[in-house]
Specification:
By secondary structure, this protein is α/β, with parallel strands linked by helices. The protein folds into 3 domains: 267 residues, Rossmann fold (3-Layer(aba) Sandwich); 57 residues, no CATH class; 47 residues. It is built from 16 helices and 16 strands. Strands 4-3-9-10 form a 4-stranded parallel beta sheet, with helices on both faces. Strands 5-6-7-8 form a 4-stranded antiparallel beta sheet. α6 packs across α7 and α9 crosses α10. The protein is elongated and about 105 Å long. The two termini are 46 Å apart. The relative contact order is 0.12. It binds adenosine monophosphate (AMP) and zinc ion. Zinc ion (ZN) binds next to loops.
Length: 469
């Protein structure tokens, strides 16, 4: 069955054609490990998990690469500001290396709690500095760079295709980057961006390079790691849609100028999770993590289910309210509803003993209907609606490898309760009464058993009891 993906580069849905038949390579900009991932970040990572799972269900060999950013990501997302890692380390009084270790571990734990697969490759930026230097050197050799007192820059005026992904007018970009221009007066064009920082003597993490001792820019990290594991040209690159105008635009420019080949065939971007109270930020008490949800009594899978109900290209709004000023616990009606719906779903699947999709043909038709929704640019809301309509446990289970709702383990029929000894004793007494044909006594005992909440059934194998419903 064909797979259609919305490609940001063409602003349209396209049939997916893999570079290598039967294989798909996916790159995801991963977390910057200076803090916990917030549930907005995780919405994006959840989408990428669904994408990889959809390909697996379609029989593809999937290679999903997600980097771990442990150096070079400035607080501004551009070149200005401070390295998020170094700032985090100072504030939390940890070494940068311990900070990275702590939050990488926390991140992987969050993935697990959200029922996500672990990406196939999780390269750390600090372990790929040689590849970044090499890429920078190639750009320098081809004349795409210049140096200033701050470091090595990419000269965007040398790349006629610069900005093709965002398709925005460059004045917007200039506006956004004015801050950087003020900081480095040697910069030639507003959109130029740093490939290597060499003038940060107090930076803790630093490496020797042809442009002095320093550290890599954030954009070059993703180019170096994606191309190392997936090749100069690869199938799919994902991220949140905030990365379109700068980060991904710069990744394309430096990769294509260095290799002379197209970088990525399909660009996929997730819309944001927004709080009704505003942007996710620590200062305003709007920083929600998987742990916040768990502390507030929400199974992380309820959040997964909430995300599944919205299309990834639509903004998802969460009306989160804190229970008090300590900002430790809170609630949201949409999460309550998702939790209830998920619990009911498990119960319903567990209780349905009469499979509604009888016969292979009926099953196949239903299966294809759900699959075609998933293959249509990951229309998960439609797939869910179709699954609810068919209400077939078999079909739900067949799609759980994509949905990741842990149906096999959680939708289990309530165990047949075994009767306690006093009930069994009454049952024996009743059998004895029946044997001696004392039916009044046997009926009285049956009444006694019923009063205790159990029901006697006479079967050809003898009398049994089960819980009264
Ligand atoms: P960062 O750690 O800031 O690089 O973010 C990791 C990923 O989360 C990136 O793909 C971002 O685009 C994405 N992201 C950041 N904030 C949100 C949000 N509120 N909703 C959805 N995705 C987000
Ligand atoms: Zn990236």
């Amino acid at each position: 069955m064909d797979i259609f993906l919305y490609n940001t580069a063409s602003r349209s849905k396209e049939i997916f054609e893999p570079l290598t038949p039967g294989h798909v390579g996916i790159y995801t900009c991963g977390p910057t490990v200076y803090n916990y991932a917030h549930i907005g970040n995780l919405r994006t990572f959840l989408f990428e998990d669904l994408l990889a799972r959809m390909f697996l269900l379609n029989g593809y060999q999937t290679k999903w690469v997600m980097n771990i950013t442990d150096v070079g990501h400035q607080t501004s997302d551009g070149d200005a500001g401070e390295d998020k890692m170094e700032k985090g380390a100072r504030e939390q009084q940890l070494s940068v290396w311990d900070l990275a270790k702590k939050y990488e571990g926390a991140f992987l734990h969050d993935l697990e709690r959200l029922g996500m697969r672990r990406p196939d490759v999780l390269p750390r930026a600090t372990e790929h500095v040689a590849e970044m230097i090499d890429l920078n050197r190639r750009l320098e050799e081809k004349g795409y760079t210049y140096t200033t007192g701050e470091g090595l820059y990419f000269d965007t005026s040398k790349d006629p295709d610069y900005g093709k992904l965002a398709n925005t007018n460059m004045s917007e970009q200039r506006q956004g980057l004015r801050e950087d221009l003020v900081i480095d007066t040697g910069k030639r064009n507003a959109a130029d961006f740093i490939l290597w920082f060499s003038n940060k003597p107090n930076h803790i993490m630093k490496w020797k390079s042809p442009w002095g001792t320093g550290y890599p820019g954030w954009h070059i990290e993703c180019s170096a790691m994606s191309m190392k594991y997936l090749g100069d040209t690869f199938d799919i690159h994902c991220g949140g849609n905030d990365h379109i105008p700068v980060h991904h635009t710069n990744e394309i420019a430096q990769s294509e100028c260095a290799t002379g080949h197209p970088f990525v065939r399909y660009w996929m971007h997730t819309a944001f999770l927004v709080l009704t109270s505003g942007r996710m930020s620590k200062s305003k008490g709007g920083f929600l993590t998987v742990q916040t949800l768990a502390d507030s009594g929400y199974d992380p899978l309820a959040y997964r289910y909430l995300c599944l109900q919205a299309h990834y290209r639509s903004e998802l709004t969460l009306a989160w309210e804190w229970d008090d000023d300590s900002h430790e616990k809170g609630h949201a009606e949409s999460l309550d509803a998702a939790r209830t719906a998920l619990t009911r779903l498990y119960e319903k699947i567990a209780r349905t003993t009469d499979e509604p999709l009888k016969g292979n043909e009926a099953y196949q038709v239903a299966f294809d209907e759900v699959l075609s929704a998933l293959n249509d640019d990951l229309n998960v809301p439609k797939a869910l609606a179709t699954l609810h309509t068919y209400a077939s446990p078999r079909l739900w289970k067949a799609f759980d490898p994509v949905l990741g709702l842990d149906i096999a383990a959680r939708a289990i029929p309530p165990a047949e309760e075994t009767a306690p000894p006093e009930i069994n004793a009454l049952l024996e007494a009743r059998q004895a009464a029946r044997k001696s044909k004392d039916f009044a006594q046997s009926d009285a005992i049956r009444g006694e058993i019923a009063a205790l909440g159990w029901e006697v059934a006479d079967t050809p194998q003898g009398a049994t009891v089960k819980r009264r419903t």
